[in-house]
Specification:
Helix content: 40-55%
Radius of gyration: 17 Å
Structural class: alpha/beta
Number of helices: 12
Number of strands: 8
Order of helices and strands: EHEHHEHEHEHHEHHEHEHH
Number of domains: 2
CATH architecture of the largest domain: 3-Layer(aba) Sandwich
Distance between the termini: 12 Å
Length: 234
């Protein structure tokens, strides 16, 4: 079994599901007392959030790059950044290590392709929705990406940072997100990408009129698959 490296803590609320999903996936595949080999580097989210809000992506790339190097030194065979937004610095971080860095949008795109979805809605932080580092990666694979109206972006961003990142799950926010998803379906979306790893804590399949693609779940399951790749093929 390969060793999985996780750069977590952004926020720690959504890092917990990564750990659980990966280990559950390994147990389902191998049975018994099997669990995953994981090395976790959990960052201080306040420092990362300050980099985001001030636009200091160079500093955040340095922080994540240092974490990736330490995971590689600790024996990780591949690494995941357990958040969507910080994939903005994916190119810089991937250059710091020799082991693969598994992109969350690529894992999600693979699942969407299997299911035949081409026109997808994207919910995430304002950085993920408004900047092109994420949407362009999906567009390169042939997806048409719809984001909510500009008037909805502040609400989505506020719920993520002020509620979900501190463990608050409010029914009013769930209903607001469900309404936004309904609006995106009316514009032709075939599925919705929960492009922030915290949103899956709030929105479940029964809360959405569109098929839900929870990026944290998909990314974590991909990690478990890669960890067993040699075993399943050998």
């Amino acid at each position: 079994m390969k060793t999985i490296g996780l750069i977590g803590g952004m926020s720690w609320q959504s890092t917990i599901p990564y750990y659980a999903i990966i280990n559950e996936s390994i147990r389902e595949k191998l049975g018994g007392w099997h669990s995953a080999r994981i090395v976790l580097y959990s960052l201080a989210f306040d420092e990362i959030e300050q980099c985001q809000s001030s636009g200091d992506w160079e500093k955040s790339a340095e922080i994540l790059g240092d974490a990736a190097e330490k995971l590689e030194q600790a024996g990780a065979d591949f690494i995941l950044i357990c958040t969507n937004t910080m994939h903005k610095v994916y190119p810089q971080v991937s250059k710091r290590v020799q082991v693969p860095l598994i992109h969350i949008a690529d894992a999600t795109a693979e699942q969407l392709e299997k299911d035949g979805c081409k026109k997808v809605a994207l919910l995430g932080t304002r950085y993920t929705m408004a900047q092109d580092f994420y949407t362009s990666r999906l567009a390169e694979r042939g997806f048409e990406v719809l984001i909510p109206p500009e008037t909805d972006i502040p609400l989505i961003n506020r719920v993520i940072f002020d509620e979900l990142c501190v463990g608050q799950l409010k029914e009013s926010s769930r209903q607001a997100f469900s309404g936004i998803i309904a609006g995106l379906r009316a514009r032709g979306a075939e599925a919705v990408i929960l492009g922030c790893t915290e949103i899956g804590l709030l929105i479940h399949p029964e809360d959405s009129v569109l098929p839900v693609y929870d990026t944290a779940l998909i990314h974590a399951q991909k990690a478990a698959q890669l960890a067993l790749e040699n075993d399943t093929q050998g």
